[in-house]
Amino acid sequence: MDISITNWCDKGCAFCYKSSTTLGQHMAFSDYKNVIDQAASMGTFQVALGGGNPNQHPNFMEILEYTVGKGIVPNYTTNGRGLSEEILEATRKYCGAVAVSAYPPYVETADTIAQLVKKGIKVNIHFILDADSIGTAINWLSEPPEFLSGINAIIFLNYKPSGRKIFERKMLRNSSRLDEFFNLATSPQKKLKVGFDACCVSAVFARTNASTVMVDACDAGRFSVYVSEDLKVYPCSFQSGLIEGDKLDDKTSFLDIWTKSQNMRSFRRYFSSDQCSGCNHKSVCMNGCPIFEKLVVCGYR
């Protein structure tokens, strides 16, 4: 389960699909406890806390402690700001891992990694992969910079056409180096441990020899779900700016939404549809992204 516990952030990144600002609202701690109580009753075993910048939520340490108390492992993504000594210690004590969002010129990224690694915290890097940044990604995979030496893995996230500004030219499919990158990233000789978000898997299936046992299609509405800070529920977080979403309230439970929501069912129907009939990878890729067709980078469509 992905949970946006806040839409507060002071970074102001142009590509932020949540358009988070210092005016962003926090999810009430009481609401968070309700979400986690229902999640635990449904067998949820892991949550990814996001935002905004989640560790700057005023109840962040209580959120981590409460989550673990319900038998669920919390993880979170951070831009590196607001990592006090108390936050770092709570992270070490309660979290499975922390993902650090990598932003050029990467000075703040390097400092954040150093803080977390020093505390013995498992660190992954979230790297937004687009037609411009793919060159940096190739360089990092070929000769990793020193500040990545203590990380667990680098996770590549396909650039989404959403946010304060939409840059069509930055779409990953516009790069001429796709085969070079994906072959390097899945090579047994690579120097960094690598992962991908679900939005990259069409290329992994079509452009590499990676084992399909190690890669899954998009799991939105099948194995994962997203909850916004205002308690709207979606199969995928990137759908949150496009439709209203299902409201989690006293009248509608999480189980009701998961099993009966027409939005959830629409995603499941898409994955089993004939959108990509004729493609050899359809059975594993499951038609790619239900929201943004241009995220598909297999070359088939």
Radius of gyration: 19 Å
What class, by secondary structure content? alpha/beta
Report the average pLDDT across residues: 93
Helix and strand element order: EHEHEHEHEHEHEHEEEHHH
> What is the number of helices?
10
Per DSSP E runs of 2 or more residues, the count of β-strands stands at 10
Oligomer: single chain
- Bin the strand percentage: 5-15%
Low-confidence stretches: none
Q: State the shape.
A: globular
Strand order of the largest sheet: 7-6-5-4-3-2-1-8-9-10
DSSP helix fraction:
25-40%
Largest sheet: 10 strands, mixed
Q: Ends: how far apart?
A: 30 Å
Cofactor: [4Fe-4S] cluster
InterPro entries: 4Fe4S-binding_SPASM_dom (IPR023885), Aldolase_TIM (IPR013785), Radical_SAM_PqqE_MftC-like (IPR050377), rSAM (IPR007197), rSAM_sf (IPR058240)
Organism: Orbus sasakiae
Keywords: Iron, Iron-sulfur, Metal-binding, S-adenosyl-L-methionine
Question: What's the topology here?
Answer:
Blueprint: E1 2-4, H1 29-41, E2 46-50, H2 60-69, E3 73-78, H3 85-94, E4 98-101, H4 107-118, E5 123-129, H5 134-142, E6 153-158, H6 178-185, E7 194-196, H7 201-207, E8 226-227, E9 232-234, E10 246-247, H8 254-260, H9 262-271, H10 282-285
Parallel strand pairs: 1-2, 1-8, 2-3, 3-4, 4-5, 5-6, 6-7
Antiparallel strand pairs: 8-9, 9-10
Helix pairs in contact: 1-2, 2-3, 5-6
